[in-house]
Structure formats: C-alpha cells, structure tokens
Design brief:
Number of helices of chain A: 8
Largest interface: A-B, 62 and 51 residues
Order of helices and strands of chain A: HHHHHHHH
Helix content of chain A: 55-70%
Number of strands of chain B: 2
Number of strands of chain A: 0
Radius of gyration of chain A: 18 Å
Largest sheet of chain B: 2 strands, antiparallel
Oligomer: heterodimer
Chain lengths: 191, 486
C-alpha cells in the first residue's frame, strides 16, 4: 500500500491519522508525515528562497515550527498547503525590515555554477533575466506560478488550495507571465 | 486584426481552454505569427523557470535532510534543547564570490595503476599528445583465455593493471615517433658508407652526448638529462637546447669509475658526428647511483615524456611504478646514512632574491589637516549662493520673452544685443520693426489721428477706450452682474 497520497495538495490521504497521532505525541507519525511530503515541500522551499542553502534552512525551520504548533494543523484537510503556508510566513518574517534577497545568486538555485557550456553565454543571460523577473513578482504571484509550473496543478486545484476563484487564478498567472516577458525584454534591450 | 490576449495565450499554454475558446485560439495562432511568437516567449520563460527552480534532488540528499529534521522534531516534541540547524551548502550571505566555479574532480582509485600510467602517458591532458595507443587493444583470444583462467584462480590484478607488454604490442601512435637510427642500434659507432646522411638525427646525438665526460659517468639516465638541461641553461648561446634553470648541479662523480653493478645498466656508445673522426674514448656506461634497495624502474616509465622542466616539479614528480619521488629517495638515503644521490636542496629553502639591506627611513611627520572654521564655511556658502543666484537670475531672464514682444511688460525680461556672427548673417543685420509709439517729424500727433469707430458724441456721454458709447459697457456690466466686493 502506497502511503503517499496521489494528490497531496488536494487529497488528505493519511494526513489526518498522522496529524492526530502526532498531536498526541507520536513522533513516528510526524516523521512519517514529513517523509510523505518532503519532496513537494522541498520544491516549495526552493521556489520561495531560490537558493539551495537557504532552502535547506527554511525546510528545517518549517518542520520545527510545525512540530511546535501541531495544535494548529488542519485535521480534515491535506497538511501540505499548511506546511507551505508556514514556510512562506517564516520567509516573509525573516525578510521583513531587511534588504530583499538578491534575485540572482552567485550560483544557480540548485547550487550548480552558472556555466553556459556548449549553449553559449546568452543561455545563461536568459535564465538570469527570467529568474530576476520571477523574483520581482509579488510573493502570491510567485506562489501561483510555482503551483502551476512546478507542481503542475490545474487551475481548479490551485483555486482550491489558495482559496482564490478560478478566473482570478487564471488572470493572475497570465499577468505574471506577461510581467516576466516584459522584464525579460527590458533586460535584453538594456544589454 | 484583434490579437489574442495574454490570458488566452496563458490558458492555452496550460491547456485550460476548451470548446469554442480553444478553436478560436487555435485558428488565430494558425494565421498570426505575432501571437505565436508571443506564446513561444511565454513558454520559453516557463521552461527556464522549471529548469531553475523545479529541482528534484536525489534521495540521499533528502534522506540526509530528513535525518537533520528528525533530530529537530524529536527535540521539539520531547522538550529537549533544539540542536542547531545545519545546511550542507553555504547560505546566501556566506557564499564566497571568488570560489571556483567547478569543484575539484574526485579521485578515482578504481583506475589503479592503469589510471596513473594513462595519466602519465598524456591521456586526458589538454595539449599533450599521448605517447601510447589511443585506442583499445585488439582482441586476443589467447589473452582472453589467460585472463579467464586468472579470474578463475582469483587473480584479478591483471584486469586492473596495464602490462607494458600489451601496450608495446598494440602501440600505434598517430604521428612521428622518435627512434634511434639503425646504425646506432647495431653498435658500429660509425655510419655505414652507403647510408644517406641524416643531419637531424646527428643533431640529436650532439645534443645529448657532446659534453658527456667522465664526471657524468655512473649516473642514472634522468640525472644525466638533468645535467645537460642545466648546463644548456648556463650556456644560452648553444642553439641546441633552450632551458632556463639554476646553475649546474654539483653532481658527485665517482672516481675512478666503478665497474658495472648488477643493477640495470644503460650502455650507450659514444658516437661522433658524421664526417668527424671516430672517438677513441670507450663507450660510456651510465649506472644509476640511487640506493641499491630501490626497485627496478618500470620499462614503461622510461618511455614517458618529461612534462615539466621545472626542478621543483621534477623532484616531486613520483615514479610511475614505485610512487617514489627523487627527493624522497634522497631523504631516505640521508636517513640511512648514505649520501643522497640528488643533493638538490628543496625549493623552499633556496632564497629567491639576493640579500639586501633594509634602509630605515625616518618617519614622516603627519601633515596637519586644516579644518575650515564655521565663519569661513558660512562666508564660502554665502558667496557661492550669491554667485549661483545671480547666474540663475540671468538664466531665467534670458528665457523670458523680451519686453518688446507683444503682451510682454517691461519688467519681464530684456533682449540681449544682437550679435553678428558672419558677414552674410542677415538675421543679425535686420533692424527691429519701428515702434508706432515713437514720435518723429513725420509721425502725426495722436490727437490728430481719427478715432476708430466714428466721432465722439457731442453730448458728453462717456465713451470707452475704443470710442464707442459707454452703453456697451453698461450692457456688459448688466450681463456680468454686480462686481463682487462693492
């Protein structure tokens, strides 16, 4: 039996059992919950921080915070949106009152160097402009694009997870894409 | 032509359209290249974001991360002190901008000795031509049978080590190869009478043996090469070899020459240049004076090229087979009570510059910095503001319309005198239009000029400035109403 729910964003699966057991003090249930959702949570942390080391730190902070606030965890709903919401809140709280994190780091978000290889330097330039444009978006728009592009959720599921109506989800994703296109064009013209 | 909106393009990218909307978009994209390009741009950015941010790490990375999280969670739920959070890669504020882009290549011990030999032979090194075959050796049924038998016996060494015999059999270097001429291999000492002269090979022989004398006898082959390299550096006028290095090394030459020992001996005949009389000297015998306990060098190691001519690298370059550097060999000999065969000091003990005297200069007196007083600063600020204000005023007056322009008053500006830039400059020569207000001898007095609009009324009723009766003014006043404030 596969314990991992097929649609962890919308279907609770075994989350309620694990959450109830964890709220009673069962560490193994909480660890099973972490193991079931570690990969989408890691993708969310990478898209939020756009940095490998920062994503590692945010991943640990999120789960430590969730362990402290298990009483607030949803019981009848999937846990993954709650965990990602915690991660976004922690990141916003860390950056509040401070300088925003550089949109393009010294390395790729995966930790690899910015080497063009056989593709040419314009390939890296395009990627850096796209990443810069993505970083300029509002965090909500970033999150909508993340759920659509990386998690490949349909509009209806995104609306269910975020609580935003479907037409608004469509419009915001389209405008976010247009914004990235415009910033990219401006970068090309400036270059 | 109405193009598609970005909402339609985005929804079409996500596959969220259906029915008539999808048909409309597909039909439009089939005919409009502009919308196609725009949609392709959106898709390109989506792909770039997926490449950058949709990272799918390995399981071992997530396992390691989960172990750290487990320690945190257990400590939190049991009320224990929370361990510090650790990351496997530096945080964004801790990154070194000068760090190399590529991590060092990991060691590959599985290659074993074969890998070391291949590395020394030049495989995988840019700019260095391999001295051995660059292709896999041909299949040999007998060799395969021998290897299978060795595998059955449990001897797997033959599978990880290259044998010199196999390399020699299948060596096919693409390019010219150096080899001794046949008349040298035969050991005759003189070229054959009918043989064609070979000036190139003779030059090589002169290069190696022209200065060979007794003091270089009983030295290993590498040491003799080192002597020639350094002597060639001491004599830059010699066109045969251009090597830069320190002065000749104080090699010890045993006197008288000892007989050839049982260790490997390289006997080379003394060959004069073609046309020169044959030398009467006996053949020179080169005998290595390294410690007798040193193992016999691998025959393949003598075919390897000398990559670097720097003494430090040569001292530290290990033997391919014995993994022993000449400097370590000399140190081992010194510890054992024997005189080292290569008494070359290590490079870090040799001073790189000559001795010099350090001249102590008297300390310079610091020049006191004059700080402006507040009065000086205020005066300076006032003067600057005055000059700046005057300049700004002049600039503003320059851009205002002149006083003689229609609708301008005398205080709003003035016109600078016209400047004649060139003889043909007609603009500067034009005289201003005559002012009708100016009086001259021919100008009629204003009283004598007729008043436009007719005659003055004789009944003394008021008129306006144009000479019209004041009824129009009264009508206008009635239309506008009472004047406020009166």
């Amino acid at each position: 039996m596969d314990e991992t729910p097929e649609r962890p964003w919308t279907e609770p699966g075994q989350d309620p059992e694990w959450i109830i057991a964890a709220q009673r003090g069962d560490v193994a249930s909480l660890l099973a919950l972490v193991n079931a959702h570690r990969r989408p949570l890691w993708r969310a942390c990478i898209s939020i921080t756009r940095h490998l080391g920062e994503a590692e730190l945010l991943f640990q902070e999120t789960l430590a915070h969730a362990a402290r606030n298990l009483r607030a965890a949803p019981v009848a709903r999937p846990v993954l949106p709650w965990l990602v919401r915690l991660a976004r809140q922690i990141e916003n709280a860390k950056l509040r009152g401070r300088e925003p994190r550089p949109s393009v780091g010294l390395r790729r978000p995966s930790g690899e160097p910015w080497l063009a290889g056989a593709r040419g330097s314009h390939w890296v330039d395009d990627e850096q402009r796209t990443l810069h444009a993505f970083a300029q978006l509002h965090s909500d728009d970033q999150w909508l694009l993340t759920m659509r592009l990386f998690e490949r959720l349909p509009y209806a599921d995104i609306a269910r997870v975020t609580g935003i109506p479907v037409p608004r989800v469509m419009n915001r994703i389209a405008l976010a894409r247009e914004y990235i296109e415009r910033v990219h064009e401006l970068g090309e013209e400036a270059a | 032509m109405n193009h598609l909106t970005v909402q339609q393009l985005s929804a079409a990218l996500d596959g969220a359209l259906g029915g008539p909307s999808l048909e409309l978009v597909v039909h439009h994209l089939a005919h409009c290249h502009q919308c196609r390009d725009r949609q392709a741009g959106l898709a390109r950015h989506d792909d770039a974001l997926r490449r950058l941010l949709s990272q799918d790490p390995h399981d071992f990375f997530l396992d390691d991360l989960e172990r750290r999280v487990e320690a945190l969670v257990v400590a939190v739920m049991r009320g224990l002190p929370v361990p510090p959070m650790v990351t496997s890669s530096p945080l964004q504020s801790e990154e070194d901008p000068h760090a190399p882009a590529e991590p060092p290549l990991p060691a590959r011990p599985e290659l074993g000795r074969a890998g070391a030999i291949a590395h020394e032979a030049g495989f995988g090194r840019i700019g260095l031509k391999p001295t051995a075959a660059a292709q896999a050796p041909m299949g040999d049924p007998a060799e395969a049978k021998r290897l299978l038998e060795a595998l059955e016996r449990g001897e797997t060494g033959d599978f990880t080590e290259l044998t010199a015999q196999g390399l020699r059999e299948h060596t096919s270097v693409d390019g010219p190869q150096f080899d001794l001429p046949g008349w040298i291999k035969q050991g005759t000492g003189t070229p054959k009478p009918g043989a064609a002269p070979r000036p190139r090979e003779v030059q090589k022989l002169e290069l190696f043996f022209e200065n060979l004398n007794d003091r270089n006898a009983n030295l290993p082959h590498d040491a003799v090469e080192e002597v020639f390299r350094r002597e060639g550096a001491a004599k830059p006028e010699s066109p045969a070899r251009e090597v830069s290095g320190p002065p000749p090394l104080p090699f010890r030459s045993p006197s008288p020459p000892s007989p050839a020992p049982a260790t490997p001996t390289f006997s080379m005949p003394a060959v004069p240049a073609p046309g020169a009389p044959a030398a009467a000297e006996p053949p020179i015998r080169l005998t290595p004076v390294s410690p007798p306990s040193a193992p016999e060098p691998h025959p393949l190691s003598r075919q390897l090229p000398v990559v670097s001519t720097r003494p430090s690298e040569q001292l530290e370059r290990p033997d391919v087979v014995t993994r022993e550097t000449p400097w370590r060999r000399a140190q081992a000999s010194a510890k054992a009570g024997r005189e080292p065969s290569l008494p070359i000091p290590p490079p870090h003990t040799t001073p790189v510059t000559d001795a010099y005297e350090q001249v102590s200069e008297p300390p310079r007196r610091p020049v006191p910095r004059v700080r402006p007083t507040p009065r000086f600063a205020a005066a300076w600020l006032l003067a600057t503001a005055s000059v700046g204000g005057l300049l700004v005023l002049l600039l503003v007056l320059q851009f205002l319309p002149p006083a003689d322009s229609p609708g301008a008053t005398a205080w709003r500006g003035f016109r600078l005198p016209s400047i004649r830039f060139a003889p043909g400059d007609t603009t500067s020569l034009e005289s201003p239009p005559p002012d009708p207000a100016l009086h001259s001898a021919t100008t009629p007095f204003p009283v004598e000029s007729p008043v436009p609009g007719g005659e003055f009324p004789l009944d003394g009723s008021p008129v306006d400035s144009t000479g019209l009766p004041s009824d129009s003014l009264a009508t206008a006043a009635d239309t506008l109403g009472p004047i406020p404030g009166r």
